[in-house]
Every structure is written in structure tokens, then in C-alpha cells.
Design goal:
Elements: E1 7-11, H1 18-28, E2 32-34, E3 37-39, E4 53-55, H2 58-66, E5 70-76, E6 79-84, H3 85-93, E7 97-101, H4 104-113, E8 118-123, H5 127-137, H6 142-156, E9 164-167, H7 171-186
Parallel strand pairs: 1-7, 1-8, 2-7, 3-4, 8-9
Antiparallel strand pairs: 3-6, 5-6
Helix pairs in contact: 1-7, 5-6
The structure holds guanosine-5'-monophosphate (5GP).
């Protein structure tokens, strides 16, 4: 019996800890593919081309939009972000689960285009925790931190549009909740090829 891959959209405001949750998830889940996005933002220290993002110029990004290379795209705090469509389709065809780690506008676009996508919002335990995590990260200027906090507040307003909410107050619990969502989706009868 083979299983069909599912498309998961994971959103969480900067500082909600979705990066850590996903990193742990990839250690314990097999047959799962992380979609690498294209962005016009500058790499942060330690980020690698083709692993964290495809870092592209604004011109190249606009070309990707006009050539329909992106499944969705959005502008976020002054930069473009988008999901290259081909790798996602290829991986789903191979029966892999695909994770898109994207912000709210992109998630809403995906829900329209691919209604069978499963959306998960990773929420911080509180806004205060989120603010202190962002400030302590120390990778952005105060101005960018303030913009990201404002963006985070806006994003949290869309929580109820998501299929699932995972609260990240404990990393272990958040990983286990997200893993449970993925496992349950894979066991849905419509996702299992019932021919023996
Ligand atoms: P960061 O700059 O912190 O890596 O990402 C900023 C925001 O952009 C995060 O909320 C992240 O989830 C989102 N993001 C990353 N890749 C994509 C993408 O391909 N499309 C959209 N819509 N958002 C993305």
C-alpha cells in the first residue's frame, strides 16, 4: 500500500520558534521535503544558498513571477519571498510530504490554489515571549525588530483561518504536536492507496 504526499503550510511569526520546531521535526520524520523559498532579502550569518533560501535579486524574482515559476509569493518587511512550484509538485508526485514555511499572505494564496493543503500556525505562548525572543536574536536592527513585531501582531489575527494551531511553549511538545498532525493527515483514507 502506498501513500500520497500531503502539502503542509506552516506559518508562524518571526520569533514563534518555527525554525527550531521544523529542524527537530526533520530529525524524526522521514519522507518529508522542505520547500526552499526564493527571497530578495540578504542572507543572515550562517545561512546557505539553496539550503535556507535561494537568494535572488529583485529582477530575478520579478522574472520568476512573470514566468509563473512561483506557487505563491508575498512581500514581507520590504522583501519578496516565494515558493518555486516545480520542486513542490515533483516531491508530491513521489509521495513525499512537502512543508512550506511561509507567511500568512502566501498561506492564504495556497489555500485558494490547493484547497487540500493543510495549514498549521505555530504560535508563541504570548506576545511578550515573542518580543523578547526577537530582541535576543540580535540579528536585526531595532527598526527591523519593531517592524517584525508589528507584522507578528497582524499575522496572529489570521490564526483562526488555519486548520491547526501548535503553541510553542515547549519545543518538545510543539514538535510532537506538529508530527501528530502530519501523521494523522497521512492516515486519512483518501491519502492511502487501498489496492493491495
Ligand atoms: P525570514 O526573513 O525571517 O527568513 O522570513 C520572513 C517571513 O517570510 C517568515 O514568516 C517566513 O515564514 C516567510 N517566508 C519564507 N519563505 C516564504 C515564501 O516562499 N513565501 C512566503 N509567502 N513567505 C515566506
Amino acid at each position: 500500500m502506498s501513500k500520497k504526499g500531503n502539502l503542509f503550510v506552516v506559518t508562524g511569526p518571526s520569533g514563534a520558534g518555527k525554525g527550531s520546531v521544523l529542524a527537530e521535526l526533520f530529525k524524526i520524520k522521514e519522507n518529508i521535503f522542505f520547500s526552499v523559498s526564493a527571497t530578495t532579502r540578504q542572507p543572515r550569518p550562517g545561512e546557505k544558498e539553496g539550503i535556507n533560501y535561494f537568494f535572488v535579486s529583485k529582477d530575478r524574482f520579478e522574472e520568476m513571477i512573470s514566468c509563473n515559476e512561483l506557487l505563491e509569493h508575498a512581500e514581507y518587511v520590504g522583501n519578496y519571498y516565494g515558493t518555486p512550484e516545480n520542486p513542490v509538485n515533483e516531491m508530491l508526485k513521489l509521495g513525499k510530504d512537502v512543508i512550506l514555511e511561509i507567511e500568512v499572505q502566501g498561506a492564504l494564496q495556497i489555500k485558494k490554489k490547493r484547497p487540500d493543503a493543510i495549514t498549521v500556525f505555530i504560535a508563541p505562548p504570548s506576545f511578550e515571549v515573542l518580543a523578547s525572543r526577537l530582541r535576543n536574536r540580535g540579528t536585526e536592527s531595532d527598526e527591523v525588530v519593531a517592524m517584525r513585531l508589528e507584522q507578528a501582531k497582524n499575522e496572529c489575527r489570521y490564526m483562526s483561518d488555519y486548520d491547526y494551531i501548535v503553541i510553542n511553549d515547549s519545543l518538545e511538545k510543539a514538535v510532537s504536536d506538529l508530527s501528530a498532525v502530519i501523521t494523522a493527515a497521512g492516515c486519512r483514507s483518501e491519502n492511502v492507496d487501498l489496492r493491495f
